[in-house]
Amino acid sequence: MILELDCGNSFVKWRVITVQGLAVSGGVVESNNELLHTLSAAHDVHLRVCRVVSVRNEEETRKLTEAIEAAFSIDVHVAQPAMEQAGVRNGYDDYQRLGMDRWVAILGAYAQAGGPCVVIDFGTAVTSDFVAQDGAHLGGYICPGMPLMRSQLRTHTRRIRYDDVSAEQAKHALRPGTATVQAVERGCVLMLRGFVATQLEQARLLWGDAFTVFLTGGDALLVAGVAPQAKYIPDLVFQGLAIACPLT
């Protein structure tokens, strides 16, 4: 079995797949120790190798990979930046500065679209990337995601205090809020929806209607109504990781 890890700034997403690519299990953890404990407790999981995409610094990534190698006696392969891979050309002036999570998501999307596409990932931050017909990455945009917007309002506005359960309930509608939690949560959702709308406008200026939109990340479904034609692929980063970091 293959262990795949998506190491973000806040969480580690993990899944175990068979050699044929069938997902066996997966989840989200907050720390390396929690990840090791969860995997060690899964007695039906027999790991053979691991591949990782990480946006953490080299030291943090090294600590995680060494811990996995020691705990399970397997090799760990970490996806690396590339100027060109799988038909996609990195569009950043310094290709090594493009976040690896964005890069592998781009690879996964272009492999499916085979042509112009927009990849929008909703995590702690929201990122969008544009890829042309010939695989040229044209660049993209980054803005705060729901967690960052909520955190900033809570941190810098004294009277904004509410729990996560109330936040989740508030997002069930988008009419004007009659309580602070509703006003904040719905306002943040509308900010994200507006961001998606502008990405579609940019894409139409480039390609007319001949492009594919990919949505991924934890909050992607909050904006699905803005882009009903979009493909929602929760594991897009993992799909791209398999391309960026092949094991054969």
Radius of gyration: 19 Å
Mass-distribution shape: globular
Helical residue percent? Answer: 25-40%
- Mean pLDDT, all residues: 91
**Unreliable residue runs:** none
Straight-line N-to-C gap: 14 Å
Structural class: alpha/beta
Strand content: 25-35%
Question: Could you give the order of the helices and strands?
Answer: EEEHEHEEEHEEEHHHEEH
Number of helices: 7
Strand order of the largest sheet: 3-2-1-4-5
Main pleated-sheet profile? 5 strands, mixed
Strand segment tally: 12
Explained architecture:
Helix content is 38%, strand content 25%. The chain has 248 residues and is of the alpha/beta class. The protein starts with a strand and ends with a helix. 33% of the residues are buried.
Short description:
The protein is built from seven helices and twelve strands. 38% of the residues lie in helices and 25% in strands. The chain has a five-stranded mixed sheet with strand order 3-2-1-4-5, sandwiched between helices. It has a five-stranded mixed sheet with strand order 10-9-8-11-12, sandwiched between helices.
